[in-house]
Design brief:
- By secondary structure, the chain is α/β, with parallel strands linked by helices.
- It contains 21 helices and 15 strands.
- It has a seven-stranded mixed β-sheet. It has a six-stranded mixed β-sheet with strand order 1-11-13-12-14-15, with helices on both faces.
- Helix 10 links the parallel strand 12 and strand 13.
- Its main location: membrane.
- One of its GO terms (cellular component) is apical plasma membrane.
Length: 704
Amino acid sequence: MITQVLIGILSGAAILTAGILIGHYGISQSSSGAPPSWLKDVAKDVDESLIEKFLSEVDNIQIQENLRELTKVPHMATTAGDEQTVQFMLKRWQDPETGLDQAWREEYMVYLSFPDPKNPNKVTVVSPSDTVLHTAREKEKSYTPDQDDPEVVQPYAAYSPAGHAKGKLVYANQGKPSDYQLLNQTIDLRGTVAITRYGGAGRAAKAINAAPYGVLGVLVYTDPLDINDGLMSDIDETYPHSWYLPPSGVERGSFNTHYGDLLTPYLAAKEETYRIPAENITGIPHIPIQPIGFEDAYTLICELGEEAAPAAWQGAFNCTYNFGGPGFKSTSYFNNSDVKLDIFNHEEVKNSSNVMGVIRGSVEPDRYVIYGNHRDSWVHGAIDPSSGTSVMLELTRVLGSLVQQGKWRPRRSMIFGSWGAEEFGLIGSAEYTEQYFAKLSERTVAYVNVDIAVFGKWLHLRMTKNPLVGYLSGAGSDYAAFVHYLGITSMDISYTYDRTKTNARIYPAYHTAYDTFDYASRFIDPGFVSHQAIARTAGNVLIRLADSLVLPLNCSDYAEILEDYLGTAMTLYEHQLRARNISMEPLKRAVASFRSAAAHLDRVIRTSDLANETPLKVRRINDQLMLLDRAFLDPLAFPDKHAYRHVIWASSDAGKPTFPGLADAFATAESSGQSRHWDKVHYHLSVLSQAIEGAAHTLLITKL
């Protein structure tokens, strides 16, 4: 039996060897004596002249007109306006002269939250006899016809539960856990309504953090200090006179902490997919929450009683921000009155579409470079997201023209995604990654995201001209599912302002009815030259990822990041961990091992004449580079964080520039002092050490 097996193995080896030799000499000796026609294509590198041609053909006026078309009507997810943009994308990508090889729509049945247009949400101040003393504005003030469009959705908090909350008002700063903890030391929060400002904590967290203290409802507003550099008057200071937010402007948003469809976690939300019961959804508020404008917030906050809040809690209003008694001052017109929230939101499962397009690769069609942005907006969405969509349409126009004219075809396939329902929690992109999990995990080289293409007008804000590189450690846009869930190398590109010159945490019209073509063309990017710069930059990146013989990904840069993270972790944690007999040595060795392996692969790439090497060697190196981020995935590392599996880039609540799981575990352990929490710190050290060591081994060939 053993003899038969050995003979079989040896015979198989002989046949394989003979096949390789025949194949080798067959390839080398064609009938004409010349190398086969495909060999030149296989060895071809990125064509710099093609990139120059692409850069020269990107047209700022085309981008401007794209934006004008995309912002004609509000296009919130699943509305008639959204379908209008779906048809517009399909028409452009199916154009026989400038379109892609193929374009289609992918549909999902997703769980969304809407206000009731016939029964608007209300925020009122009511006296003990239920007399209404003040009503918050239900609709933003009109300055242009855009705000009068009947499809402008009332400001609301998506996924806030319907309900009625009434209680004495308190001011809770940004609604962070520490804010409620401090406030609760002064005031009994049971039965109160809290008013919070945007920033510091996620939208949903402002209500989720409040509920354990007995708070019944939450208001949230944008303080002029955080968005307008303190300016407040629409007579001459805010839009329509400048880019600043008018007093009635309200930031809408999705008030959930998870991304993807909430009823189908880890499953694509197709019509017949299993759905969990709605009552089992996690990561959404269980008490009503409603956003309001700062003009109404001013009316409420400046009437609050009790002692003054800390200096760090003060904002731009010309009054002292007090905690609240709870409630209003005894001298106030609102004395002894309650704040009441009447929320009539409802949830629906609705059909949402991604629009997909592809340019097929000529040499490695099974390797994908994906470029995407979401299509849906809260209202007209000129900057978020249509600035990015306008750029994508111009980029695909130029590339599509080259393909249709037969002048170019990328080495690797380019996939373009116009994602649906992003504003409700990155739903379209997340469902796409869940549906095509295996294929994308095995074949995707990189994902490029361009959402808000341009954040501000650099002439007024002295925009930095040097690129600022940060880390995709949160879930701010559609890169989240690609990097955190699939471990795909990702990039998010935007043209932003110098944030040292303004307090604006984002462009001021964000998620309001003022994010219009008028706003974008007058105050964000007159002439659309910054949009043009982003289209050129993103297209340059896309072409190089698709056409370079060796992928332009540098694993030594990764080693530098790991070393920076390690240095911070040692400074912050090593002393206390050593006192508890928890060693950081395995983590140090792992990072050193990764540095050595990265340097080795860099040397191989640098010293090899890869254009004249066997294509298998090039493919092998590219696969090592492509799959590196996958090596950092651990599906068990973050059980409380939906779809976060990347141990280097996961989100963190600790706010430290180091390994997220370790930072969060250490913060919890230091706060509680409990041994089980210190055990969790040790666990995350082990997770990190083994993930980094494993990633280092993927950069080596023979070591097992």
